[in-house]
Design a protein that fits this description.
heterodimer; A: alpha/beta; four-stranded parallel β-sheet; 12 helices; about 45% helix; about 15% strand; elongated; B: mainly alpha; 15 helices
Chain lengths: ~300, ~325
């Protein structure tokens, strides 16, 4: 009997020991400070479980992190990261096309979030060679923006906030889709993002997607992403709506508008439908693009809102 | 003759040593100043290995700033040497790789290489080399044979070659739609920030043999300056020396262009300054140009990364701002 008890005790010890070993093993095998993820460029990146020192390498990423309420994790951002206004206060690490490697390293980031279009690949590679993980995103349209928001939320432990944000975006997009679904006419829109030379947006841009969603026809659709136009070409296309987004000031806009007003035969001029809008609503792949979409619907289909009022 | 040789060697040592000190001073400045404002004292502590060591500062100094100052040294030395060689062979005090359009030709080749998606080494470098050889031939055709051009005409043709290269570059840049465009524009202005240690190693392996080659021919350059006939009677194979030096120089210049774009006027400022200080003997001037040119570009690069409040500007902006006025001054002086 005594032998049995001691045997059982032994047995119990064994079990406890095994459990401890297993839990210890689990702890050792999956350390709590890092995990491996795949970013949007199919690169494997080892990121910290709880990133606390993030450097955002593009204005739209800064915006997304603010939108998720995780700005306390941000240690630095690029120049022109000006939304929300508090983002201006962050230390700046160069512009997104010309990053200042030394400043980034000096901020001791435990994670950098980069974008595919714009951030030089050389900088990303050098950051990685300095053992700073770089997670790259590539938002191209509203769907991939929502995907990006969810991924960044997952990276920085803000899944709940990301879900909420994306639900809200989705809801507003669906609303617009149903609003526009039975419009009879899709006006011809010329979306001018460059003043001199005149530059518009092709099919593979998110602005094109917005114009189509908002119930318009993009006059510049085609394989070239940012096609250049001569004045003559634009006149021949006879746009019904001209939307100019520019970082330029009001004075420049008045000039551009006056240029177009020289052509009273242009439908957009006849009906006074030339608009200047803040480019930040349209050229940054962020949740604010939905604001841009709502704005576009008002510009392209004002009649939908008159009926409602 | 017997007394001249030891004197020359002594002069060579004195000049080289003093310029080496200048280079080290510039390098120390380059290591201690940067956009992260680390402070010179902390850098001193790191270099001497005393006091509290900050691993982040260590990374910044040795992995970011150090490759950069080495690159600036190599590029500055190369471009100054390029200026010296062109000035000697074309017998024109205003000749310089950038002004003659050699750099522009390399840039065209390099941009085509980048747009083709080639690797920096060897693809883009080779394209740049063929571009530089192309412009070199153009210049030689214009400046030799029946139509021997005068000083001003050579410079004018250089200006035209440059304008043509600029147009071709803008043409190529306009054709591209993608995000590489921004990088090309920064690179065009002479950007030293994007190079890491292995790349500096490759660059050094290509450039250092050329430095020695040019030094080997330094006395020939002295004799060439005295005139072709004079050089020939002194036993110099004028054609062979000229071709070797020009090809080696184009190779060096095109290599630097493929790594850090167009850094202008270094080959004008440095050789003139050094000639003023140490006299016209090329046996002294060749090593002096390598060391002094290196120090000069390291210094310009320090200015380029500390002057702007946010970010940094390409070093080529600084060298052009110093070099172009000097060019005008020299032009006026030689006219008189």
């Amino acid at each position: 009997m005594a032998f049995r008890i001691s045997h059982m005790l032994n047995y119990r010890f064994m079990v406890i020991f095994l459990l401890a070993a297993i839990s210890l093993g689990v702890f050792v095998v999956t350390p709590s400070f890092a995990r491996t993820v795949t970013d949007q460029l199919e690169r494997t990146v080892t990121v910290p479980d709880e990133p606390r020192r993030i450097v955002s390498l593009a204005p739209n990423i800064t915006e997304i992190i603010f939108a998720l309420g995780q700005e306390h994790r941000l240690m630095g951002a690029t120049r022109y990261s000006d939304f929300p206004p508090e983002a201006n206060k962050l230390p700046k690490v160069g512009s997104y096309v010309h990053l200042d490697l030394e400043k980034i390293v000096a901020l001791k980031p435990d994670l950098c979030i980069a974008i595919k279009d714009g951030n030089p690949i050389a900088v990303a590679k050098r950051l990685e060679s300095l053992k700073i993980p770089v997670y790259a995103v590539n938002p191209k349209n509203l769907e991939t923006i929502m995907q990006t928001v969810l991924e960044i939320g997952g990276l920085i432990n803000a899944e709940k906030e990301a879900d909420l944000l994306v639900q809200n975006m989705d809801l507003r997009i669906q609303k617009i889709k149903s609003l526009v679904s039975n419009v009879a006419h899709r006006p011809r829109v010329f979306f001018q993002i460059g003043v001199s030379p005149i530059v518009s947006v092709g099919t593979h841009t998110f602005i094109h997607g917005l114009i189509v969603l908002a119930g318009g026809t993009n006059l510049a659709e085609g394989s070239i992403s940012y096609p250049r136009f001569s004045r003559e070409q634009v006149l021949a296309l006879s746009p019904e709506v001209i939307i100019i987004t520019s970082m330029a000031r009001e004075a420049v806009f008045e000039q551009v508008k006056a240029e177009w007003n020289k052509w009273p035969d242009l439908p957009a001029v006849r009906n006074q439908r030339i608009f200047l809008e803040d480019s930040n609503f349209f050229d940054r792949p962020t949740p604010r693009l939905v604001d841009g979409l709502e704005l576009l619907v008002r510009l392209i289909h004002p009649e939908l809102f008159k009926e409602a009022e | 003759m017997n007394t001249e040789k030891p004197l020359l060697i002594k002069r060579l040592w004195v000049v080289s040593f003093s310029l080496l000190l200048v280079l080290f001073a510039a390098m120390f400045l380059g290591l201690s100043l940067g956009s992260s404002h680390s402070g010179i004292k902390a850098v001193f502590q790191n270099l001497l290995g005393i006091g509290p060591q900050d691993p982040m500062l260590d990374t910044i100094i040795w992995k970011i700033r150090f490759p950069r100052i080495l690159l600036a040294t190599l590029v500055g030395g190369t471009l100054s040497l390029g200026g010296l060689v062109f000035q000697a062979i074309l017998k024109n005090p205003l000749a310089e790789p950038y002004i003659l359009g050699i750099s522009g030709g390399s840039a065209i080749g390099a941009i085509i290489g980048i747009l083709m998606g080639l690797l920096r080494f060897p693809g883009v470098s080779l394209m740049a080399f063929s571009g530089s050889i192309g412009t070199l031939l153009l210049i030689l055709v214009m400046s030799s044979g029946h139509t021997i051009l005068k000083k001003d005409a050579l410079l004018l043709s250089g200006v035209m070659v440059n304008a043509f290269c600029g147009a071709v570059i803008m043409f190529l840049v306009s054709l591209t739609q993608d995000a590489r465009l921004h990088n090309i524009i920064f690179w065009l202005m002479g950007d030293l920030s994007m190079v890491d240690m292995p790349q500096v190693g490759i660059l050094a392996a290509m450039l250092l043999p050329c430095f020695f080659l040019v030094f080997w021919f330094s006395n020939s350059m002295n004799l060439l300056l005295m005139g072709k006939e004079m050089a020939q009677t002194m036993g110099i194979n004028v054609k062979a020396v000229t071709v070797t030096l020009l090809v080696a120089t184009s190779f060096m210049v095109s290599t630097t262009v493929s790594y850090c774009g167009l850094v202008g006027f270094v080959g004008l400022v440095v050789p003139h300054l050094l000639r003023l200080l140490f006299g016209p003997d090329h046996r002294v001037l060749v090593p002096a140009c390598v060391l002094g040119g290196g120090a000069y570009l390291v210094f310009c690069d320090v200015l380029a990364r500390t002057l702007p409040d946010q970010g940094e500007m390409p070093a080529g902006v600084i060298t052009a701002m110093i070099g172009a006025p000097l060019f005008i001054y020299l032009l006026k002086k030689t006219r008189r």
